[in-house]
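Course exercise 7: structure representation. Students receive a sequence record and must write out the corresponding structure in token form. The form below is the worked example handed out in class, using DUF1036 domain-containing protein (139 residues). Read each field label carefully; the graders check that inputs and outputs are placed in the correct fields and that the protein name is recorded exactly as given.

STUDENT ID: A-19
EXERCISE PROTEIN: DUF1036 domain-containing protein
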Amino acid sequence: MGSHQQQPVVHSLNAGAQQILRIRAAERYSMQRIAVMEGQSYNIRCDAGQRWVDMVIWASPKGYPNPLARLFGMRVHDARCFCLCGAYNDADTDAFAIGTDHTIAHVPINGTLSFFANDVHGYEWNNWGSIDITVTRLQ
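STUDENT ANSWER:
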């Protein structure tokens, strides 16, 4: 059986439309993404009761305090470990915390919006499970 790289699925939303995405904790950047254009606005929500797993620690989309991960340098430094985060165009440069409810008032760049569980770069291998999020394009 040959190995092949799975291609991301990019959803394009009209104003007022919603899309439910499944975000897997082991993916560096989610395979489910949203096409965005500068100036658009979005709301991202998920049920706080959902859980995904960092090695053996069950965490909500709000994440949990992890001093060791903070010491090693998480991808989004000011967010908790395993907090649901977002990034534009597969770059952590402007990555941001989402948690369970976040509104992007003004998308800063054209491209794609992907999601991930905040962790130390390279430690995605010990992440398990997934959460479902609802992305709503506001304008």
